[in-house]
Structure formats: structure tokens, C-alpha cells
Design brief:
It contains seven helices and ten strands. With 224 residues, it is of the alpha/beta class. β7, α6 and β8 form a beta-alpha-beta unit.
Length: 224
């Protein structure tokens, strides 16, 4: 069985009187452990697609199955559990809490999930060590570089060992050297943990390193 399956997913937005159809008929199968790239011009619906996969938003038609379950048929509480335990998010602009330390940011999902703090800290330090950030665990986030912030966001996303990692242009705000470092670490951590990665990117070189590549254009997702 696929980990994630999208069947004829459609999504439009109403902007004033106008209806903008973003996803017309999107189909996708993602298997456990795969790295999948989604390319597409700005405004083509990449973020919309991730929002539907993570049940942050609902499709107008079609279905999203995670391990065979229709995620849009879950209750709100079940969807919150799904997002917390099954999905890890990484965003272009990190979305960290700048007043908290590196460690506190990484621990957040575990604290929300009410996990044992000692075990969470052990897990957080294991991830930070892989990311060469253990020496900065007690630093506040705001003086860190973009690459370091994105590494913190990666550790936070992976803390609870999600099966599915969604990365929305994670290197879009980084210089080429930092981007390379961050993506190498993200790939190696996902491989090590057996996480499945959906990587939204403008960067064709990065996309080439994924097993499958799709282009989102005019509301359709085509394998390329
Ligand atoms: N909440 C919303 N309301 C209205 N229009 C939206 C909303 N979210 C996205 N859009 C529009 O949908 C299109 C796709 O947006 P998005 O998924 O963010 O594209 P991408 O991530 O590929 O740049 C854009 O034209 C955008 O303006
Ligand atoms: Mg986007």
C-alpha cells in the first residue's frame, strides 16, 4: 500500500466574485521511504497541495488517503493528531519561535504531544548532533544564520519520527552553499529514519536528487 495517495484532487479559491481553479485533477502515489520532488512556477499550487495533504485545508473534490485512511474524513482532533505525529513540516521561512532557544524550538512538538521530557531531550540532542548544532542548543534562535535556523526547523520536524516530511521550498531563502548543506542533511536524516519526503522546490538540481519528480502546471501534476 502507498503511504500517501491523492485521487482526483481539486481545489479552487474564491477571490471576490472570481473563482480561481488551482488544482484541477491531481493524482499522486507516494510510497514509504521515497523522496519526491514537486516543481512548478510560483502560484501553481504547490503550497495548496501540501496544505491538502496535511489536512490544513480541504479539497473541493477528490480524496487524500494516508495509509489507506481518508484524511479529510477524520475528525478535527484526529486531524490534529495526524499533523502532530505523522507529518513533519519544514517551511521556507523556518517558522521558529525566535525568543526560544534552539532546544526549546526542537522540543515543541514533543511537549504538545505530552511526551516524557527526558526522552524528548535525548532525541533532540541526537538530531542536533547530526545537524552539527548540539553546541548551540541553548542559544536563542534570532542570532543564528538562515542555514542554522533551517537545521533547527529540520530537527523540530523530525523530533517525533514522522513517516511523512513535507518541505515547502526549504532552501528558497538560503545561499547556494547553505542550501547544499541543509539539503544533504535533510536527505541523510530522512534516509536514516526511513521518513518519506515531499520536497517542493524551484531548484532542478535538488529535484534531480529525488527518486521521483513531478511538475505542477495548470492544475495537473505530471511526472517528469
Ligand atoms: N487562501 C487563499 N485564498 C485565495 N487564493 C489563494 C489562497 N491560497 C492560495 N491562493 C492562490 O492560489 C494560487 C496557488 O497558490 P500557492 O499554492 O501558494 O502556489 P505556490 O505555492 O505554487 O506558489 C495562487 O494564485 C494564490 O494566489
Ligand atoms: Mg508556495
Amino acid at each position: 500500500m502507498s503511504l500517501l495517495s491523492l485521487k482526483d484532487v481539486q481545489k479552487s479559491y474564491k477571490v471576490g466574485e472570481e473563482v480561481v481553479c488551482v488544482l484541477r485533477q491531481v493524482n499522486l502515489e507516494v510510497y514509504q521511504g521515497e523522496k519526491v520532488a514537486v516543481l512548478g512556477p510560483s502560484g501553481s499550487g504547490k503550497t495548496t497541495l501540501l496544505n491538502l495533504i496535511s489536512a490544513l485545508d480541504r479539497p473541493d473534490a477528490g480524496k487524500v488517503f494516508y495509509l489507506g485512511k481518508d484524511v479529510h474524513a477524520l475528525t478535527e482532533d484526529e486531524q490534529a493528531e495526524y499533523r502532530l505525529h505523522e507529518v513533519g513540516f519544514i517551511f521556507q521561512f523556518y517558522h521558529l519561535l525566535p525568543e526560544l532557544t534552539v532546544l526549546e524550538n526542537v522540543l515543541l512538538p514533543g511537549i504538545i504531544a505530552k511526551k516524557d521530557l527526558a526522552a524528548l531531550k535525548e532525541r533532540a540532542f541526537e538530531l542536533l548532533a547530526h545537524l552539527s548544532l548540539e553546541g548551540k542548543a541553548h542559544y536563542k534562535v534570532y542570532p543564528l544564520s538562515g542555514g542554522e535556523r533551517q537545521k533547527v526547523a529540520i530537527a523540530r520536524a523530525l523530533l517525533l519520527k514522522p513517516k511523512l516530511v513535507l518541505a515547502d521550498e526549504p532552501t528558497g531563502n538560503l545561499d547556494p552553499h547553505s542550501a547544499e548543506t541543509v539539503i544533504n542533511l535533510l536527505f541523510s536524516l530522512c534516509e536514516r529514519e526511513g521518513s518519506t519526503l515531499i520536497l517542493v522546490t524551484h531548484n532542478h538540481e535538488l529535484a534531480k536528487r529525488c527518486e521521483k519528480r513531478y511538475l505542477l502546471r495548470e492544475g495537473h501534476l505530471v511526472e517528469c
